[in-house]
Amino acid sequence: MKAAPFEHHEPSTTDEAVSLLESLERPTILAGGQSLVPMLRFRLARPETVIDINGIDALDYLREEAGFLRIGALARHADVADADVIAESYGSFADTAPLVADPQIRNRGTVVGSITQADPKGDWGSVLLAHEGAVVAQGPDGERVIPADEFFLLPYDTTLEESELVTEVRVPTPDAREGSAYHKLKRKTGDYAMAGVATRLVFDEDGRIETAGIGMTAVDITNARARDAEDRLEGERPSSALFEEAGELAAEESNPESDEHGDASYKERMIDVLTQRALGDAAERAGVVKRTVSP
Amino acid sequence: MTDERELTLTVNGTERMIEVEPRRLLVHALRENLDLTGTHIGCDTGNCGACTVLVDGEPIKSCLAFAVQADGSEILTVEGMEELPAAAGELHPLQEGFHEEHGLQCGYCTPGMIIAGKALLDENPDPDEDEIREAISGNLCRCTGYQNIVRSIEYAADELESRAAADGGTPIDSTNSSSLGATGSEGKSIDCGLENCCGGPGVGSGDHDDGGSS
Q: Where in the numbering of this chain does the 2Fe-2S ferredoxin-type domain appear (chain B) (predicted)?
């Protein structure tokens, strides 16, 4: 099926894009388009105008700067998979990038677009939550930094204003004693997650967990944090018994729905297992402990 | 709203100008405006990969991009494979591999598989089986079970390597490559000293060592 007719605009600066967003009737932003184009084709989305931001070269970046890993709106999944800085310091990002869809889609689809799409089955939202990251939006009144915890509202719905363009997502650069990971269960390459868990652990000098972040994929109406599990971890020394408890708490906090891929109790059990695995990897990558048990 | 846009696409080395609506998908522009029907439409949802083409060297699904987004780009479709230097005026080793190793049954997915294979071998001339399976993981085939497709791409990798070796280790050009390779695994005539370079796993080891034509 073909998309309904639309007006097509190709701004070359962020300011131009924002003023188009403000002035045009029912616009939508096209970046990677790997979710948007099928939605247009099936007429699940029927905007009057499409603002194609691919010509805004200033949004094509992935770099560490001023205490953050900053991923611009035009950085593709493949760019994350290929970046040296990711391979060196950002375990969860390195885990996630090759698990998104398939190679062709990773060449086009963007991290920022995936997060802004706010599909609860999207992987990057969980990573952003686990890292206590933020979404940077440019609007008519300037720039706004939205903490990840305040970004997701409902499936495909965020706290973004209609005339705001997401220019970047960012997470804090890792501490010396920090590790992160992402584990995902999917039936085959290209699928969205049946369940996924992103973890981030920051340890203090005594080897206790100072900060724990856990983001869950596909088991609630949005990407969700497992706060009880995080609270249980903080202040403790890592151990397989502790991670088992955290896994159980995360499973209790999840709210999966039964579908053709599995029933809710199965997905809850998977959250338990994936949480333990991802915590194990995060701890190991933080260099504090060696993982001893693999559930 | 339905204003047409004029685009310039360099498709398989030839500059083409077309006029399309902004909502025209790249795959439709290729098939219908340019009459290049080798690029297939399989699923309409971005899952099957039959519409895979290279845009500026990168494999993408042409049913998930608008043609206007490719304005000014270089595109390679399956029709362009025979025109590449490695084809030496005949079939490209990837096409030959799909023939030799029975990499196709109904053939519908084949153009996408060949383009995905081309993208892989451009990046990684000596992929292992896992890397091949990963490279074609965005391409569905409902006939073959993939095993022969993997072998076809392995065949092409071996063939390209042996031609390069025969050419003194430099990339082959179209003038001197026809003496080797086009006859496939049975026709190798050199001992290049490299494991698996002369026809892959199916070739007996004695063949490799004798150094003469068989």
A: 5-81
Answer yes or no: is pLDDT of B179 > 50.
no
* pLDDT confidence tier of residue A292, bands split at 50, 70 and 90: low
| Whole-angstrom distance, CA of residue A15 vs CA of residue A28 | 16
* Number of folded domains that form chain B: 2
CB atoms within 10 A of CB A84: 7
Model ipTM value: 0.93
DSSP state of B66: B
Whether residues B50 and B85 share a domain: the answer is no
A33·B66 Cβ contact <8 A:
yes
Asked if the model's pLDDT at residue A126 lies above 50, the reply is yes
Alpha carbon separation from A121 to A145, A174, A196, A222, A285 (Å, rounded): 24, 26, 8, 8, 26
User: What's B98's domain CATH number?
Assistant: 1.10.150.120
**What percent of chain A has pLDDT above 90?**
93
Do B60 and A4 count as a contact with CB atoms less than 8 A apart? no
Mean pLDDT, chain A, whole residue set: 95
Round to whole Å and give the CA distance between A154 and B63. 28
Mean of pLDDT values over A44-73: 97
CATH of the domain at B31: 3.10.20.30
Residues 91-150, chain A, touching B (beta carbon < 8 A): 101-105, 107-108
- Residues B22 and B96: their CA atoms lie apart, in Å, by 37
Residue B100 has pLDDT above 70, yes or no: yes
A-B CB pairs within 8 A amount to 82
Residue A191 has pLDDT above 50, yes or no: yes
Assess whether B89 and B155 both reside in one domain.
yes
Cα-to-chain-centroid distance, residue A194: 15
Q: Listing from the earlier edge strand, what are the strands of the sheet with B5-11?
A: B14-20, B5-11, B74-76, B52-55, B58-61
* Token reading at A202: 């920051």
Instruction: Judge if B99 and B155 occupy the same domain.
Output: yes
- Nearest-Å Rg of the Cα atoms of chain B is 18
In a domain, B109, yes or no: yes
Pick from A10, A104, A117, A188 the residue to mutate for testing the B interface (most B CBs within 10 Å). Answer: A104
A38: nearest CB among B21, B46, B49: B46
Please state the pTM of the whole predicted model: 0.88
Burial group, residue A19, by CB count within 10 angstroms (0-12, 13-18, 19+): middle
Q: Which residues in B lie closer than 8 A to residue A6 (C-beta atoms)?
A: 1, 22-23
What's the rounded mean pLDDT across residues B57-68?
A: 97
Position B186 in a domain: no
Q: How far apart are CA A106 and CA A97, in angstroms?
A: 8
Residue B127 belongs to domain spanning: 81-165
Please write the tens of the pLDDT for every residue from A214-264: 999 999 999 999 999 999 999 999 999 999 999 999 999 999 999 988 999
